[in-house]
Amino acid sequence: MRLRVPLVLSLGFLLACIGPRPREDAPIAEPDFPAFDSEEGGDSATPNDTDDTEVPELSVDEAPSGDLSCFSGTLESPASTAAGDVVLDVRVRDWETGDTVGNPTVDFSGLGSVEGDSDGELGKLELPACVAITATLSTAAELDETKPTTHARMLTPSASDWTLSSLSKITWQIIPSLLGVQQGPGRGMVLGRVADCSGEPLDHVQVVWEGGGGGYYFVDEFPNRDQLWTSDDGFFAVLNAPAGSGQLSAWAWDGSSHVKVAGATLEVAEDSVRIVELRAAERGDHEVPEDCR
Description:
By secondary structure, the chain is mainly β.
């Protein structure tokens, strides 16, 4: 395993897996937030979600510049329509470099496990379309080369392949080091992006893992210890997340108070990575493509 510095390719590869890059020439709509009842001080606002989540201590004081036209003040779990099965070419590549990850094992939630070859190819697999699928990738424990990496996707009927990413042990060590943080034993890591209503990265959002752990952000797809909220790339990292189930929430400033604009309930395992995309106005970490709604 070779160390690649800096993480030039790593986050570009993640972005390729979870969403498109923002178009430089695309017009950016100013957000149109709904009105919320709030007390003096802003952060004591009545939570805009239905799970009675308390508003955490937040510092972002500028509204995001992305498209929040789909956000009405509450989070919805998008419904999907089952569409039979789809046959995909499935492969595993390194999250940072895009290089082959040899002999991986992939556990598809509720569907069983499949072993890949030395080129990281799992071959053609028949998987349900328009159904939330969670895949956990690992390699031989005795080689100690990768960290178990879990991410989720909803496959469309028109999909032909699926590239899964695996986080190397070296990258696991690099990210906290660049941020000046020590990743504790038995703790997990959450890496992801916040997207607006059109699927573009959403800036000026603070991400909170409500089970503990610290949230960090990126600038130009590079970890930055001084960044206090998402920048134009929408990327975030939660380090030292306690193992177990927790609430991930994305908060924005509407001009007078902080409001939750996205969220998900996630399972994080010890010494493992969870890759996730948070979508504005939605509850959950599975993007539902238009042809699955």
